[in-house]
Amino acid sequence: MKKIVINLSLLFMLTFSLLAQENVTPQNKAEEVEMADKFRADGKIYVVVSVVAILFAGLLVYLISLDRKVRKMEDELEGGAHK
Fold this sequence. Notes:
By secondary structure, the protein is mainly alpha-helical. It contains three helices and no strands. The protein has helices spanning 2-20, 26-42, 45-82.
């Protein structure tokens, strides 16, 4: 479980550092804000955020279940090798 937490924290740090490096020109900034304002005005920004959150939650649940299965298989292999 520690490995999962460490990997996720590293992933978030990498993501935020990449977002901080984004090169924004005045033209790009105006286009991005206009699009975000349109989504906010239509109420669609909440749909986008919720879909992304659901995808991340599903991925997290899948990785945790996969980790448990692998750990169980490793324990079975170690137990069988010692007998």
